[in-house]
Design goal:
Elements: H1 6-16, E1 19-20, E2 23-24, E3 36-45, H2 49-60, E4 66-69, H3 76-86, E5 90-94, H4 121-129, H5 135-153, E6 160-162, H6 172-183, H7 204-226, E7 234-236, H8 247-263, E8 284-290, H9 309-312, H10 315-323, H11 326-334, E9 337-340
Helix pairs in contact: 2-3, 2-10, 5-6
GO molecular function, one term: deacetylase activity
InterPro entries: YdjC-like (IPR006879)
Family: Belongs to the YdjC deacetylase family.
């Protein structure tokens, strides 16, 4: 795993050679797929007890290998205990957009609406764009969430990303990166998915949102790199959420991602310039973002203002069942895809 693209450039080097480490590649033969270290991260751990149990069941079945905890969620303590009991690798899902803050010093904060809740997924973006958000308050809340994570889990997060991708937004990304650097958290998520522009099955509003997410993520790379923060070589998950997750679509996303990594050395946005390519094989690292679980019941769960439609949707169970489908698990084995967690790097 590297922010400067070492592993992808190494794979590219393999792709171009006919003799590599004593292995003879015959002209015209199809190159075997490289082995992959895949982190499958279950987001929103802590949202409600049903969601927590679904995530644990998915982990036990081999469908996910990592979780991201919402420390301001109503069932965060329950989630932390489950993670300890089941030895689930866990990171922090920083939340600035849904529910109540963790910090006790944000009364009247620009982060909150008149009812004392965060502004919401799109509301947060609107307030940020208006220039009304104070970055000092963003920093205070992020630090409070890291500290709360440590209280719940007993150690620092192995990684830290953002609920609803808030961590890559303008201005926020600078503060986010500084907080990670100060706490010594070295891994995050950069949501740029190869092939996403070809996913015409996604509705227009989602394609527009994803395009903006990728733009923000691209502009975050230099910020994260400057602070010594790293991320997997490949990201996927925007095109495989909810009902769009299927065995065939997961195979498509993984296959396209790996192919793009091999063939697109100039434009692949997660590859940083690196002139020194080594002659030692290094597997591609990737993260698949997922949202499995048993659907929330009305009035149960959330981050202080009840569960949203996303958490109550049958899509959560659909993702759970797809991720633990034997066809998916067999595909990983057949392709040399090894599930792991951020802590394993």
């Amino acid at each position: 795993m590297s922010s400067d693209g070492h592993s992808l450039r190494t794979v590219l080097d393999i792709h171009c050679k006919k003799d590599y480490n004593g292995i003879k590649w015959q002209g015209g033969e199809k190159m075997p797929q490289p082995k992959v270290k895949l982190v499958v991260t279950g987001d929103d751990f802590g949202y409600c007890e049903r969601r927590n149990q679904g995530i644990v069941d998915c982990f036990k079945a081999g469908g996910i290998s990592n979780v991201s905890l919402l420390v301001n969620a109503v069932s965060a303590e329950h989630a932390a205990e489950l993670a300890k009991r089941n030895h689930i690798p866990i990171g922090l899902h920083a939340n600035l957009s849904e529910g109540l803050p963790v910090s006790q010093d944000l009364k009247g904060s620009t982060l909150l609406n008149k009812d004392g809740f965060f502004h919401g997924k799109m509301g947060f973006r609107e307030v940020l764009q208006s220039g009304q958000l104070k970055m000092s308050e963003v920093e205070a809340e992020l630090r409070a969430q890291v500290n709360r994570f440590c209280e719940l889990v007993g150690h620092m997060p192995y990684h830290m990303d953002g609920h609803q991708h808030v961590h890559i937004l303008p201005e926020v990304r600078e503060v986010f990166a500084q907080v990670l650097s100060d706490f010594g958290i070295t891994y995050t998520r950069v949501p740029i998915e190869p092939g996403l522009k070809f996913c015409t099955f996604l509705p227009p509003h989602l394609r527009d949102f994803n395009a903006q997410v990728e733009k923000d993520a691209l502009e975050s790379i230099k910020v994260f790199h400057r602070h010594g923060i790293r991320w997997p070589d490949v990201y996927l998950g925007l095109s495989t959420m909810g009902k769009n997750m299927s065995v065939s679509n997961l195979k498509r996303a993984l296959g396209f991602t790996l192919e793009a990594s091999l063939d697109d050395r100039v434009t692949s946005p997660l590859i940083q310039s690196n002139d020194a390519v080594t002659d030692s094989y290094c597997p591609v690292t990737a993260e698949l973002m997922v949202h499995p679980g048993y659907p929330s019941q009305p009035h149960q769960g959330g981050c202080g203002e009840g569960p949203d439609d996303f958490s109550q949707s049958a899509d959560r169970l659909h993702e759970l069942n797809t991720l633990r489908d034997p066809l998916v698990l067999n595909y990983y084995r057949q392709q040399g895809i090894h599930l792991c967690a951020f802590k394993d790097f």
